[in-house]
Amino acid sequence: QVQLVESGGGLVQAGGSLKLSCVASGGSVSMRRMGWFRQAPEKEREFVAAISWSSGATYVDSVKGRFTISRDSAKNTVYLQMNNLKPEDTAVYYCATGQPYDSGWTYWGQGTQVTVSS
């Protein structure tokens, strides 16, 4: 059973930056596809970014060039660096992963709130 704990959310002005962290226990992040999702009020959860076990990264178009996903295998942690934040980035951000070398999303964190003021 993999457990994921997110942190790093908060309130920031538009144009600012935040770095989210997701610490994993019960499984290695280096063997898994790790992802970030977000859910804004009254909207469905949406994919934001993912990094594969081979370190390939993918992003939703709306965050390309502003967000960067990375992994520190020694700390078993995945990060989401968010720059040039916009009010539309306001959401609860969730970390997710699956089984080793599998593309499914099986395990989810509890989420961390990101609020961007205009």
Defining traits:
globular, mainly beta, 11 strands, 7-stranded mixed beta sheet, 4-stranded antiparallel beta sheet, 118 residues, single chain
Total E-strand runs: 11
Number of helices: 0
Radius of gyration: 13 Å
Average pLDDT score: 96
Q: Write the H/E string, N to C.
A: EEEEEEEEEEE
Mind describing the biggest β-sheet? 7 strands, mixed
Summarize the amount of helix as a percent range: under 10%
User: What structural category characterises the helix and strand content?
Assistant: mainly beta
Distance between the termini: 40 Å
- Quaternary status of these chains? single chain
Strand content: over 45%
Low-confidence blocks of residues:
none
Principal-axis shape equals globular
Descriptive notes:
This protein is mainly β. 0% of the residues lie in helices and 50% in strands. It has strands at 3-7, 10-13, 18-25, 34-39, 46-51, 57-59, 67-72, 77-82, 91-97, 107-108, 112-117.
Q: Which secondary structure elements does this structure contain, and how are they paired or packed?
A:
Layout lengths: L2 E5 L2 E4 L4 E8 L8 E6 L6 E6 L5 E3 L7 E6 L4 E6 L8 E7 L9 E2 L3 E6 L1
Parallel strand pairs: 2-11
Antiparallel strand pairs: 1-3, 3-8, 4-5, 4-9, 5-6, 7-8, 9-10, 9-11
